[in-house]
């Protein structure tokens, strides 16, 4: 669908709701709100599209008739089909508390719709920027509602085996460097024993580094793009003639989920303080333009010693709708580069 066609559809949708006699300013504001989309649903759709294993992610229309059907059925937010397992229904939630809760009545209506179309029902939940995807059966009855903690949801996370999500770590010392030649001292000031200098400089060398800070040449473009997903630390070294700036991953850096890397990549192109329009992202030919295939980029980064660890999570309870033999679960998990000591390779289960 072209941008023009999409805009026409938005205007038509608003006019059908508000009527032709509505104030033009009200119509414009409503179109603008719709153009922003439903951030959680659109973000999850973008993530599944970008991770590479989704064949279809389709937003389901919440308008249903007759009106009485709303007391029996609750249409979930999305219908998705991944490479393995057949189509599934997904209800999307974004919460700020580490416990997700559904009323029995709401859950019954979701179940009724899933049974009507004979599809598995999954819950996608975002908490503080981290997404999990789990089967609805893992909700447990409390006094009134059905609940699940984020920790339990993470144990049953299907985002990896269905959508292709992983966790990864940039190798310590990997990053980029700038070698700047001092050309002219502009000013020098000493205050309380501290010397402050300003130099006119010229960059005479730019390069990338792999594990251990070793210089690297001919890294794949997608591999170097991975550096934009990481919070690199700045280091400086000074000589009489040069200042060298290095932006590197540290020893104590944690892991990064693949789906969180997408947010970093999209923010990279935005002005400071701007927010991501997820609706626009999912309507582009590619969610991001500066990385062609995230999974392959990680594999190449592991080979080129920019990434030193990749974790492939599997759920504690294997879903019945997904035959194990359809999913490649063989091979080392996690995967680590050859320089990683065995005692650091951990477990991904």
How would you sum up this structure, described in words?
The chain is an alpha+beta fold. Among the domains are: 37-165, Trna Endonuclease, Chain: A, domain 1, CATH 3.40.1350.10; 170-248, no CATH class. 28% of the residues lie in helices and 30% in strands. The chain has helices at 3-18, 24-36, 39-51, 104-117, 150-155, 159-163, 221-225, 258-268, 278-282, 294-303; strands at residues 54-59, 78-82, 87-94, 99-102, 121-127, 130-135, 140-141, 146-149, 167-170, 175-191, 194-210, 214-216, 233-238, 242-248, 256-257, 307-311, 335-336. The strands form 4 sheets. The chain has a 5-stranded mixed β-sheet with strand order 1-2-3-5-6. Strands 12-11-10-14-13 form a 5-stranded antiparallel β-sheet, with no helix packed on it. It has a 4-stranded antiparallel β-sheet with strand order 15-9-16-17. α1 packs across α2 (24-36). It is globular and about 80 Å long.
